[in-house]
Design goal:
The complex is a heterodimer of chains A (141) and B (148).
Chain A lengths: L13 E9 L1 H11 L9 H6 L9 H8 L1 H7 L5 E8 L11 E13 L4 E10 L2 E12 L2
Chain B lengths: L17 E2 L2 H10 L5 H4 L1 H6 L13 H13 L10 E10 L8 E14 L2 E11 L5 E11 L4
Antiparallel strand pairs in B: 1-3, 2-5, 3-4, 4-5
Classes of the chains: A alpha+beta (141), B alpha+beta (148).
């Protein structure tokens, strides 16, 4: 799949937007796929015992799907050359209604010499930001 | 017990080689809602120039995890796992991970800092392929909460 046209991008452009509904099933699936079986991600009793408001999504799960709209926009996961996030707030996943995480991907910086676009992610549950400094560098040369 | 400041600069032995399986990549891709055919379909991946399905960007955490387990098991580390919070995470790629890769990771403790009652440990895991070529560097900042 061809890469997006670097020359047509401007800082501030929204390149992708997506919402991810999470359920407890999502957490169990990620636990199995990643090998992270920390019980705070699937057991309410354990989560409460360590002082958490409830079962939390794995930070690495949130980091994992938050980049996917950018991968789809870039057309090839191999165009991602750097990806970083800060875990600022946990995502509590209610046993009945789950949680919805929204992702907005915006051009943050354009490196003309390297034809690399820095895409900044805004990742929220409701009005609360859950990932800080979430930046994806995508090579479009 | 606080985190041992002498951990800074320590390099752990390389992990046992990790063979990236096609079905593991697909399983991980589904878990992170990856829908790109390059992640799932070997034909689509080959059409894009890869030998097999391509792992999603955060897949290297699976390999880095092996190095973090080594770090936590260091007898003198003083890192209480139940007090560890993942502060931030970064991946810097030379190329994406592809099914069939045989990956080896080597962890270096980049820094150990104290911030009030907490310790901040930065672990840098360099992941190379069977030829020793760099694939990705995974950087984790671990916050170890002090006694309440």
């Amino acid at each position: 799949m061809p890469a997006p046209d670097f020359a047509s991008l401007a800082v501030g452009d929204i390149v992708a937007e997506q919402s991810f509904p999470l359920t407890r099933d999502s957490l169990v699936r990620y636990a199995g796929a990643s090998g992270d079986f920390n019980p705070i991600h699937y057991r309410d009793d354990v989560a409460h015992a360590v002082g958490l408001p409830g079962v939390l999504a794995h930070g690495m799960l949130t980091m994992g799907f938050a980049v996917q709209p950018v991968v789809d926009w870039a057309g090839d996961p191999g165009r991602v050359v750097d990806y970083q996030v800060r875990f600022t707030r946990p995502v509590v996943v209610d046993p009945a209604i789950g949680a919805v995480v929204s992702v907005i991907a915006k051009v943050g910086q354009l490196d003309e010499a390297e034809t690399v676009a820095r895409i900044d992610l805004t990742v929220k549950v409701g009005e609360e930001t859950v990932l800080g400094k979430a930046q994806v560098r995508v090579a479009l040369g | 017990m606080p985190v041992n400041p002498e951990l800074q600069g320590r390099v752990l032995p390389p992990t046992e080689p990790y063979l990236v399986g096609r079905e593991k990549v697909r399983e991980f891709a589904r878990a992170v809602f990856a829908t790109n055919p390059i992640n799932l379909d070997p034909e689509a991946a080959r059409a894009a120039g890869y030998d097999d399905v391509v792992a999603p960007p955060t897949f290297p955490i699976v390999v880095q995890e092996l190095t973090l387990a080594q770090l936590l098991a260091e007898p003198d580390a003083g890192i209480d796992f139940s007090r560890v919070v993942h502060g931030d995470q970064r991946f810097s790629y030379s190329r994406p991970v592809v099914a069939g890769d045989l990956l080896t990771a080597t962890l270096t403790v980049s820094s150990v800092k104290t911030l009030g009652a907490h310790s901040i440990v930065v672990a840098e895991s360099v992941i190379v392929d069977a030829d020793g070529a760099h694939v990705v560097t995974a950087l984790s900042q671990l916050v170890v909460r002090g006694e309440d």
